[in-house]
Structure formats: structure tokens, C-alpha cells
Design brief:
Layout lengths: L3 E7 L6 H7 L6 E6 L6 H6 L4 E4 L5 H10 L5 E4 L4 E3 L1 H10 L7 E10 L2 E3 L7 E8 L3 E4 L6 E4 L5 E13 L2 H21 L8 H16 L6 H30 L2
Parallel strand pairs: 1-2, 1-4, 2-3, 6-11
Antiparallel strand pairs: 4-8, 5-11, 6-7, 6-8, 9-10
Helix pairs in contact: 5-7, 6-7
Length: 254
């Protein structure tokens, strides 16, 4: 039976890391946690499990995940976020393929919990992510904070049965804090790519994001929480481009 290295990056994840690590018991033959110097009880919780706990300065989501990937002992890697948890059905699916890895990558259907409710529309489910793969067949890439593991050309992937639980945001305040942080990271990443933002760019992206998620994506079927989540996500798009325009103007100054 092939062995699996589970890899997780953390920063102040005391709320969910315990559930994440517990779900890996009997699945992962090695667990590597790369922590960005958490100030809460993340390390203490991780030490209760059989993990390799490494502290490493955070330089970006893509960079941190590729660094963590380099520490994995085995070629087959199960990459989880600290706020994700394997369902029983998904664990059974992984155990079945451990006897015979026929594909280079395996895609999970992620289900997101927003403020205590499991969301099933507007991209919340099935939220597909490549989470189990041969690390020699690809790498983490993409503009921060939107990291994706991309398989090399010619590699093969398939979807696994089961659900990956994701504890998205537990409150509106947490979502708003994340909005501010992620929009700043995205704006800086876009600046490095040479992107520009015009006078109406932020407003256009906000309106389109809300229309796409709430109307086209049927976010309204998620009820009031769907309306709030789509609104904050739309505002995230607005702030991302508003901050990019601000950065553009600062670069132009002598």
C-alpha cells in the first residue's frame, strides 16, 4: 500500500486544526504542519498529534504551500487547509485508492459552512479542489491568495466520492476581516503583474461579482446568508480593484 504525506499550512488556526488533524487519523502516514508563527494555541493542539511541526516565515500562500510540499517525505500528498475536514465517505475513498494510485491527481467536492449553515448553491457546493496528488507531477501556482495545484501537461486527474468539509466563516465579522486582508494581498499581486485599474473598474467588478454569484449562481437559494455572503464577496472585488488603483497612483508619483 502506498503511503501518503498530509501537508497543512497554519496561522492561528486553533478553532479548526484539531478537527482537521483528527480526520487524517488512519489516512495519512505522515503529517507535516508548516506554521507562520502562530500566537494562539495552534502549536499546542498540533503537538497532541503525531505531526512534524515546522515554523516558517509566511511569504505568500503559493510560496508557503510549495515550501510545505518540499518537506513531504512521500510523493503522494494530501494537501488540506487548516479549516478543512475529511468526511467518512471521502476517507473510505482515499483508503481504497491507496492500494493502487491510477491517476496523478484526485479532486474533492468541498462543502462550505457559512455562519453555521451548510451552503449548497452559488459555487459553495460542489466546490471542486485538487487535494490529493503526486507532487512530482505539478506545483502550486496562481496569484496570491488564490493558490491552485496545477498538474503538468499530460497528467491525469479524477474526482473522488465523498465530501471535504470546509468551515468557511463563522461570523460576518470574520468574513469582513478576511475581505480586507485578501483584497490587499490580491491588489499587491495584481500590481506585481502590471495590472491597472480604471476609474470604474472596481464598481464594475463588484456589480458583476454579485450578479454572477447571487443571480446566475442561484445564491438566493441560500437565503439571507446567501445574500450576505454574496454581498461581502462582491465588496471584496470592489476593494481589490480600489486598492489596486490606489497602488497604481502611488507608483506613478515621483
Amino acid at each position: 500500500m502506498a503511503k501518503i504525506s498530509a501537508v497543512i499550512i497554519t496561522l492561528n488556526e486553533e478553532l479548526h486544526i484539531g478537527k482537521c488533524l483528527s480526520s487524517l487519523e488512519g489516512i495519512a502516514d505522515e503529517i507535516v504542519v508548516v506554521d507562520s508563527f502562530s500566537t494562539d494555541s495552534t502549536e499546542e493542539i498540533c503537538r497532541r498529534f503525531n505531526v512534524r511541526f515546522i515554523k516558517h516565515k509566511f511569504e505568500g500562500y503559493v510560496e508557503q504551500k510549495n515550501f510545505a510540499l518540499s518537506l513531504a517525505t512521500f510523493p503522494h500528498v494530501l494537501s488540506l487547509d487548516a479549516d478543512e475536514e475529511l468526511s467518512d465517505e471521502l476517507k473510505s475513498s482515499i483508503l481504497r485508492i491507496k492500494d493502487n494510485f491510477k491517476y496523478d491527481g484526485y479532486i474533492f467536492d468541498r462543502m462550505n459552512n457559512y455562519c453555521g449553515k451548510w451552503m449548497k448553491h452559488s459555487g459553495f457546493y460542489p466546490d471542486k479542489h485538487l487535494r490529493l496528488f503526486d507532487k512530482t507531477k505539478g506545483r502550486w501556482t496562481g496569484p496570491n491568495p488564490h493558490d491552485n495545484f496545477i498538474l503538468n501537461p499530460g497528467s491525469r486527474g479524477i474526482r473522488l466520492k465523498g465530501v471535504l468539509y470546509h468551515w468557511y466563516f463563522s461570523s460576518f465579522e470574520e468574513h469582513l476581516d478576511n475581505m480586507n486582508r485578501f483584497s490587499t494581498i490580491s491588489a499587491n499581486a495584481y500590481l506585481k503583474e502590471g495590472r491597472k485599474a480604471g476609474l470604474c473598474t472596481a464598481a464594475f467588478h463588484m456589480i458583476w461579482r454579485f450578479f454572477r454569484s447571487f443571480i446566475l449562481g442561484a445564491g438566493f437559494l441560500n437565503g439571507y446568508l446567501g445574500y450576505v455572503s454574496c454581498s461581502i464577496s462582491a465588496y471584496t472585488s470592489f476593494m481589490k480593484y480600489a486598492k489596486l488603483r490606489r497602488l497604481n497612483s502611488m507608483v506613478k508619483k515621483p
